Amino acid sequence: MAVQQLVAPEHELGIPVPQIPRRTRTRSVLALIRPEHWPKNAVIVPFVLIALPSWTPRAAVQIAWIILAFTIASATVYILNDVQDRHRDRLHPVKRLRPVACGDVPVGIAYACAAGALALLSLVIAVGVTLLDAPAQAIWPIAGYLIVNIAYSAWLKHVPLIDVFLVASGFVLRLLAGVLAISASLSSWLVLSIFCICLLFGIGKRRHELVVLGSSSQQHRPSLAAYSVQLLDYLALLSAGIGLMSFMSYLTTAAVVDTFGRLTLTLSAPFMLFATFRYLQLIVVHRTGGNPVRLLVRDRLLVVNCAIWSAGLLVAYLAA
After folding, report:
1. Could you tell me the maximum CA-CA distance found in the chain, to the nearest angstrom?
2. How far apart are CA 287 and CA 11, in angstroms?
3. Which of 74, 104, 111, 283 has the maximum number of C-beta atoms within 10 A of its C-beta?
4. pLDDT of the residue at 18
5. What is the 3 state secondary structure string of 127-139?
């Protein structure tokens, strides 16, 4: 079955709309595990490294192990989610191109891929604990991530507010796993800020779906019946405000001050504010936000802002 051209205009969806030919089975399976989303599993790296009193090769290996484990775990979740949502995805102008929804990957093969991913995840965890000397307590956030997301795919994604809270919790679990793997200390301010920022991304995605899909949005995602654009705007502002204040409070903790010096907050505040303002501008004015990862890595202003911010933090670290 050939995949047809998307019906929604490119400017409405905020992403390129190519004419996509039929994929080979290998490419379809690769698309099933969504490699473009794998960078999300590395978001723990900068925050975990800040908590380290000293950066060591062993810590780098432990963090790489956590990233690999969550990459495989998230791939498993993506497969199960695509199988569960295949009928609703066919009603979405972009998601109908997903391998299971468009028929490129049969349901049976998708389940087999999920089982294979789980087996590979078990092997990676066993190797990490036995050969890499990774702490066993770092396993429970991975297991928690799988349980939460399987429940999310099965029914909790249809529960308003709970849906975005569970998506944001996945990033907190990534952070906890990284901290436990290297036995580092964890700031409650950092946990709160990561949760609220990721909550903002989830709210932005719901807003995008509600605006772009219009009256058909509830057919694709039933929980959208309990949302409105105005409500999501209020929730986005609230999440952004709490996330910003929590992260600024985190920057004043001893772990950050000892690593980067006391100028960190002064250097970071304008870049944090600009990144938040730009994201809100993108989801409200430009009606994007359907794919937060794409926005964060492809929007030029956000990329330049992050590059200058990172350079400033590097200078602060070397000068500390």
Report:
1. 60
2. 9
3. 283
4. 41
5. HHHHCCCCCHHHH
Q: Which amino acid is at 233?
A: D
Torsion of CA 8, 80, 67, 169, to 10 degrees: 80
CA gap 279, 298 in Å, rounded: 12
Q: Which amino acid is it at 95?
A: K
CA 301-310-168 angle, 5° bins: 75
Q: Is 180 exposed, middle or buried (0-12, 13-18, 19+ CB in 10 A)?
A: buried
* Integer Cα distance of 260 and 267 in angstroms: 11
Residue 274: how many CB atoms within 10 A of its CB? 17
User: Phi first, then psi: what are they for 16, rounded to 5°?
Assistant: -60, 145
| The pLDDT value given to residue 11 | 40
d(CA 118, CA 110): 12
- Rounded to the nearest angstrom, the gap between the alpha carbon of residue 307 and the centroid of all alpha carbons in its chain is 20
If one counts every other C-beta atom within 10 angstroms of the C-beta of residue 300, the result is: 7
Q: What is the pLDDT of residues 152-190, one digit of tens each?
A: 988 899 999 999 999 999 999 999 998 888 887 888 999
Amino acid identity, position 53: P
Long-range pairs of 243-248 with CB within 8 A, sequence gap ≥ 24: 243/192, 243/193, 243/195, 243/196, 243/197, 243/199, 243/200, 243/276, 244/193, 244/272, 244/273, 244/276, 246/189, 246/190, 246/192, 246/193, 246/196, 247/189, 247/190, 247/193, 247/197, 247/272, 248/272
Residue with tokens 């009603």: 91
Query: Once rounded to an integer, what is the mean pLDDT over residues 252-261?
Result: 80
State residue 94 phi and psi, 5-degree precision. Answer: -105, -45
- Token pair for residue 87? 């009928």
| Nearest alpha-carbon partner for 268 in 255, 280, 256, 281 | 256
Burial of 302 (0-12, 13-18, 19+ CB in 10 A): middle
Q: Looking at the predicted structure, is the pLDDT value of residue 52 above 70?
A: no
